[in-house]
Fold each of these.
Amino acid sequence: MKRTKLRELFAQYESLADQEITICAWVKTNRAQAKFGFLTVSDGTCLTPLQVVYDEALSNFEDISKIRVGASVMVNGKVVLTPEMKQPFEVHATSVTMLGDSPENYPIQPKRHTREFLRSVAHLRPRTNLFQAVFRVRSVAAMAIHSYFQSRGYLYVHTPLITSADCEGSDQMFKITALDVVNPPLNKDGSIDFSDDLFGHKAYITGSGQLQGETFAMAFSDIYTFGPTFRTENSNNKTHANEFWMIEPEMAFCDLNGLMDIEEEMLKYVIKYVLDNASDEIAFCDQFVEKGLKARLENLVNSKFTRIKHHDVVDLLLNAGVKWEFQPSYEDDIQHEHEVWLTSHFNGPVFVTDWPKDIKAWYMKVNPDNATCAAVDLLVPGSGELMGGSQREENMEALEARMKEMNINKDKIDWYLDTRRYGGCVHSGFGMGFERLVMYLTGVDNIRDVIPFPRTPGQCEY
Amino acid sequence: MKRTKLRELFAQYESLADQEITICAWVKTNRAQAKFGFLTVSDGTCLTPLQVVYDEALSNFEDISKIRVGASVMVNGKVVLTPEMKQPFEVHATSVTMLGDSPENYPIQPKRHTREFLRSVAHLRPRTNLFQAVFRVRSVAAMAIHSYFQSRGYLYVHTPLITSADCEGSDQMFKITALDVVNPPLNKDGSIDFSDDLFGHKAYITGSGQLQGETFAMAFSDIYTFGPTFRTENSNNKTHANEFWMIEPEMAFCDLNGLMDIEEEMLKYVIKYVLDNASDEIAFCDQFVEKGLKARLENLVNSKFTRIKHHDVVDLLLNAGVKWEFQPSYEDDIQHEHEVWLTSHFNGPVFVTDWPKDIKAWYMKVNPDNATCAAVDLLVPGSGELMGGSQREENMEALEARMKEMNINKDKIDWYLDTRRYGGCVHSGFGMGFERLVMYLTGVDNIRDVIPFPRTPGQCEY
């Protein structure tokens, strides 16, 4: 008999009324009474579990009564509509077969577990409601991103993870090697001889695909990356991981204003897509993770995004009549307390543009004032910075001067400069950390709880 | 004035007839005559270039005449339908402005370049027709894969790339470290002390997300991964790279036959999606890469996939009346010459099942004969193996015995065994190398030409 997945069953239970179906799923609870009992089971294809009723007419009634939480079962039974009850239907079992047992000490019992405990069983936590919801949202949000860009003709490009370009600063990057690290070949001075390594020199895993992405934007106009990214940062906090996923779109013939148009349109599209395609999961997070989450997301879809220069932001902050922990400054980054105030002040997302050039990256276009650059950060209510981008310096002389000023080794990325040598043009791009987006979408406040198997300092299990 | 992308223009040129539009693009050719000239330009949003006509009425006619290949331009002009000509319309310029110059020695001139040369300018080759087509197919195929799985309720899971589980054999994996490799901390015996490293021990970048994927299948029923994968293999041939992308679906409550159903349905879906959404690119590859490509792909969509056991395959090969270079054997893998013969013999794709257990992986389900296992390779005409998968050994005792037999270190992946301890069930999965698929879709025969920036032994530029 063909198995019916719960996702299909919940979508069409009315047309299946009184029909016999087969379900394979895991037991969430088993409430056995003298002459009948209830199993709630889930197969993970949707968030809502199914109620199965079994009774003493079944030859193995006693065995069924003893099936423990976590066991996998096959249920044959009839779909019975129950309009008078909370759930709209249930399945009356004609047979229940245990497929895989689960012992008494199964860690995921139907009770409240702390997130700290669940991190210690990261391979089992997807079986809980919270992580069913979070990882479904993660999956749907990833599809939303692909769907947004592909429907607009963007090229999805897989930029390389292994790289020899260490222009971001190689101390921020993991080194990789195929050498025997216990007995590596050595140079005369005792250092490791990487000329024997697989690529013939030192290699890293990258922190960004932007530079390679730009070369593709100079061929396809509109491109995006969506892949894993690595940082060696040794910081143990709620928002940093050593491995995370990033989206880096890059658009030719696009200036800073065009960039902000795209960021705003994309974010609204993704949120609406998730609200439409993971409504049960958002409702769950709204109830159990962050009250008001759904309204916050719906508000964002309908909100107007403010655009304001960094200089004007600092003016505002200085005149806000607030006693800041960190004094706002025209030369500095803005702090979390400022971000919170700003999105509240404007009652919506805020693009902060034209940042002091000295605190931004070397490839960003310097403005005519020679003090600021065409960079933009997007701040969103309740979360802070969600995306960072800029118009790129397309002028070769200006770019080379800036690289010299900032001690960027030109030799290693001469290929990158070809994007300015051969048919260069105004172009812009941004980066969005995917985990920040998932945290924003679910209300979950620790990055460890939105990554299937998080990698943070000292943590690399599984 | 709003820029019109060529993709939009070609989709709706009829409704834009006689209207003024603005185009930003790169010059492919410039044929200047005494009183007028023709630019063909492309912005990379579609494969077909646009013909722009300019004449001496333009004040900068002389300058336009001199614009070189590769330069970026902005063109204002009128859309003029040309039903009598090969291309259905052209743009008559009212102004042409050069945005970014391109020098005389621009490497991508409008002539035939060898693929070897183009590999040496991997950052510029996406500007050629061939790589416009190949990388567009790659992007569309990636979307097809997400679209197939998401529309069927599969969970997209980002399994970790950094791992400490070296059960695949750590000599196949890149080691990674955040330590200073020039002066690393040492143990007393002179070896590197990895307890000081970021994760507190040795770490690798992974060659597969399968094991972590299985833990998610035990929670969501149907999951897939789609991400980069790494091998240290030191082999320089047309089909291997050290960094490539892989799709690894894993399904609970699914046996070997169910697995083959999914593989077949998915492949047909993806090919049809690419035929529908990258028709120009497939037509280009059909004309310039592999004659008959389009028919080959269409045939596959309509073909019946054969299912045959490895033992029966060897019977067939031995009785084929062919003088094989490699003698077919009941104990061995089958060779490329056998694969070619098989797909030709069956006139379509062939699932070879029930392989000798000794040449397959430890997690595959051993058959009751204790000689073969429930593994399956999919062979496709003209290419050989495209996917490999198996039913997994769900029986804990059998799995542990097999691990012992094959010297798999149980301690490091005890978490994985929990998938059998707690509600285990029949489950199956497969892996598909994404580059193999793109090669199959485009007819391109070297893996270096379907990866934006390929990493192969000795090659890690850009």
Note: The longest helix of chain B spans residues 129-151.
Amino acid sequence: MNLEKFIRDVPDFPKQGILFKDITTLLQNGDAFRLAMNRMMKKYRGEEIDKVVGVEARGFILGGIMAYKLGCGFVPARKPGKLPYSATREEYTLEYGTNALEVHEDGILPGEKVLVVDDLLATGGTALAAARLVEKLGGTVVGIEFLVELGFLHGREKLSGYKVNSLIAY
Amino acid sequence: MNLEKFIRDVPDFPKQGILFKDITTLLQNGDAFRLAMNRMMKKYRGEEIDKVVGVEARGFILGGIMAYKLGCGFVPARKPGKLPYSATREEYTLEYGTNALEVHEDGILPGEKVLVVDDLLATGGTALAAARLVEKLGGTVVGIEFLVELGFLHGREKLSGYKVNSLIAY
């Protein structure tokens, strides 16, 4: 099954001139969704993973499933102010200005092997912030998984040093 | 296993006087997380479900897993402006002011059987908006599933007419 054909192109979202890769058309097709998730997880079968960190918000959908299937814990990496308990923060730069991600301080324990999951690899800034949060808490990032990769934005270069995988690359 | 003991009480979040039920301590424990999800899905095994609608953002974690396990599609119900394609909107009232949820217009097809999933049943306003969106698009809500229910807020009354289930009730 060619999963790429389930991704919808939406022009001018979130702003003029950007061709948005909409994954909801894949998620809403039961067969395509299931196949995509199974392919994303295949390489980790039998590997010892302690936690999956899912990046808000679409990374929650994919990361939750991967944690459930791997039988490990799920830890949300959230936008600032969303987590109720003590959290550690990592800022990252956007095209204009900065943003930040937070993870609960007790979300990752020292020595844990952690998989970072998000839907889209664009410039790589968000995923790098998530990976650094894992390391701040003493965890080891064993891989960073994406459903879609926009290769022309060179996000992999920012994530060099990590094992990066994507299912559908443009 | 008593799942309630994996929920953390956080006082004064998101504001003074509110005792927040933090589910991240359950999610980050692989065994508790898996058991919670299996219990939430048990009653739907063998039932024909076409779509799971997960409510942003924590409903994405739980709803994604349920869709994957049930072998059906996943549809996100999002805060306004987050969905890239044509979406239908339902407003709901909060303690102060209003908020809204959106679902893509092609997310649910007429006649589909849909499960609505969120982490927390408080006053029920958000889940009711999600259920109405499903119905606006011609779907039938076969159940509304929560991980945690704050019974003292009487959200079930607002959702009367729907099959409502929660795993952990206070």
Note: Chain B touches chain A at residues 8, 10, 13-14, 20, 22, 24-25, 27-30, 33-34, 37, 50-51, 54, 56-58, 60-65, 67-69, 71-76, 78, 82-85, 104, 106-107 (CB under 8 Å).
